[in-house]
Amino acid sequence: METYNHHAFGALLASSLKQISHTQERPRHFTAFGLEDLYNFTDKLSSITGMVLISVDGCDSDSKANGAGSLNDRREYAFIVAKNTNNERPETIDSAIEDCRLVAKQIRNKLLLDSPVQDCIDSNTQINGIGPIGDNYYGACLFFAVIENEEYSVDGSYWQ
Fold it and tell me: What kind and span of H or E run contains 15?
């Protein structure tokens, strides 16, 4: 597998999904290093209405021996689909979360069936509700992992 670029794939998804329709002129895709970055999204989302996609890549991984002399490296990623709501109408929160959950399921299906990681994605995924983000955005967060077989050895060029 070529190196997976989570943020680039997120931008491709955001521009391909009808509900998001990301373009350079109408930005609807954002990136975050971790979920804690979402606290700083108020400025980014304040002038936007509708649905957005946030690609989260905190460079988290977990390696385990695979019993064949190498490691399985499990990289953790997330996509957040969020939609602005009206804080004076609480029912808009439930509606936004449900709309976003359906889009998150489509992203999951795309990852499993037609993506750069379809051959190495762990099919055990998780979708959780999330919010508020920024100025009353609520939605769904899709968590997934990509598992790659990794040979390990000491590379002398790193050592003195």
Answer: helix 6-16
